[in-house]
Amino acid sequence: MATPNSPASRCNGLPSPNPFAPANKSKAFPDKFLWGCATAGHQVEGNNIASDLWALEHIPHGMFREPSGDACDHYHLYGQDIAMLADLGFNTYRFSIEWSRIEPEENQFSNAELNHYRRVLAACREHNLTTLVTYSHFSMPLWFARKGAWSNPAAPDLFARYCERASKHFGDLIDFASTFNEPDIPQLLNWITFAPSQGPSMTEMFQQALISARAALNSPEFASFFLGDGKKIRDGLLAAHTKGKTAMKSARPSMPVGFNLAMSDDQPAPTDSHVAEKRADVYGPWLEAAKTCNYLGVQTYSRAIVGKKDLPPPPGTELTQMGYEFYPECVEGVVRYAAKEAGVPIYVTENGVATDDDTRRIEYYRRALTSLKRAIDDGVDVRGYVSWSLLDNWEWMFGYAPQFGIVAVDRATQKRTIKPSGAYLGNIARRNSL
Ligand code: BGC
What we know:
Largest sheet: 8 strands, parallel, barrel
Bound molecules: beta-D-glucopyranose
Oligomer: single chain
Helix content: 25-40%
Distance between the termini: 32 Å
Number of helices: 15
Strand content: 5-15%
């Protein structure tokens, strides 16, 4: 599956329409549709030094291509980034708050950091942006990881305490809260297969990384979002979601709460397909949990042809920088399935493509949104579309190589440059129409 720099072949069979063509009424999205971009704290803020990931990034021969460092310095530049997002035409900003800043040591909450995120939310309000706030986007405080992270029986209560504290401090400025970003990832990874030449599976790689991390950090219980026993992580996350949601609602009962699920558009292989089994394993418990939420966020990048496991894309397929098939219509398949199963309003909270060719990004968004509109016209209750990502940022293990942003970032000067795809998507957002 994901290789940091797999070459993308260019098999563009579709005509390329003028991306800035005026709106046609039949292409309009529903009133009050949310149009936004997403970021995640650890990927853009920089210097998230009390987090588990910062520690993992600095282990010799660790699993990261490069450390996050200053990232996009969004911690200091959030004001200009938020203004730029609004100026482009978007009405929504999705971002995450960093638990490790708010509670850098166990039970030591930082008012200064709570105030920081209050200022970020106030900046959104100043620009009339709807806010989608994720409380946990993979990273966590190092002290929490040292205690076994989500496998620690105390994890749900520890998470709930943080949720309550944060919600009390700035919940009045949050429009949609999310407990977790992609809590189903540990299970999803089990379904991905590598070509034999690509070496060990993701799960095997993570097991090895866990052993090395525990030794390097001299921390026998250490675990993190991706590193540990998948089943225990899932049970811990489900319990933490339930307690976190209750804590958020106790601080502000009217706050809409949900979470964001990672989904591929699962399509059956011609023979021996295990789509139903995959769906039950990866999404089943979370779609059940979504039924008691105010909304469900879905995040998708491509399709998976599911045999016994997800099959690797056949030779000749156009691939993104992440090694996924270039398949923008995944968004349609995913919203249709998720809406039917969860029965709550759906927001696409991540969708986009890693490419150094911005014309392919425009094409990706054009096809993704055309497919999304088809589902909406068929009555699927989708209320927003948030692209990944506002900025070219730190893409976890792959470092700064993949480019998902509609805005480029010069990391030496932190200068932002809006790409044509940013203007394209912003114009669609502004006129609420393709
Ligand atoms: C995550 C993001 C990530 C994106 C692109 C999602 O899985 O929520 O943090 O950068 O995909 O890989």
